[in-house]
Fold this sequence. Notes:
With 281 residues, this protein is mostly helical. It has helices at residues 9-22, 31-43, 96-107, 112-121, 126-139, 143-158, 171-174, 176-185, 187-196, 217-224, 226-238, 253-279, and strands at 2-5, 46-53, 70-75, 202-204, 243-244, 248-250.
Amino acid sequence: xxxIAAEQPASVTAELAALAQELGVEQAADQAEMVTxxxxxxxxxxxxxxxxxxxxRPDRLAGLLxxxxxGRVLVTSRYGAxxxxxxxxxxxxxxxxESVALLSKRTGASNQVALDELAELLGDLPLALEEAAAYxxxxxxxxxxxxxxxxxxxRELFGLDQPPADNxxxxxxxxxxxxxxxxxxxxxxxELLSLCAFLAPDIPRGLPREQPQVLPEELAQxxxxxxxxxxxxxxxxxxxxxxxxxxxxxxxxxxxxxIRARLGEQGERRWAEIAVGLLRK
Length: 281
């Protein structure tokens, strides 16, 4: 079993080369050749598992996946379109009873009503639950007091209004890379996310198209063209920023909070007014 940090192709190559050395593959001139020799070695071995963690896109792993052998490959990614390489399994938030059980086990708290409310406020997101449990453990603050902090000061508590730090996996940073990608690849999709951040977590798929005249010009043009609109939804769904179905578009409430925090005070006011205008008939 070998765990590979897969954000960058160079790091994947280096970690595969390290695996080759671990398995006794003869030293080669460069890492790429070591990877080729590793894949030959894996063809004659059985029962191995390679985990490519947090891969960005399938094309970023071109030439870096074993072409065969009696083993398994598991890829974790926020990018959703991996179907041509293998079967996909979407990981959702935890069932409520599991969220409450996690919080209870980590913190020792027994107030099921308060734990249920906290899980609700955090949207059952595993990383947010872990972060909350760590805070409660470290500070030994009472559960009721912590609930009040989550209600009133979630941005400060989870660092939602701070720039992401390298190698820091917190609620504030989980979606930062994906939001940055959308910013550069599809500005209209970024505007769509900004709009959805001020609506309910789940909205009808066609809602943004109902009154394009109240939307900013670029977004209005995009939602007015069904083909372009579907492409925008594909972009936000591809990076796991939204759950897209034939009937609805859904944003986790903490994703909404991160997006709002990135907008700044003027941006928040602007998009809140746009959202109200969209809903006003």
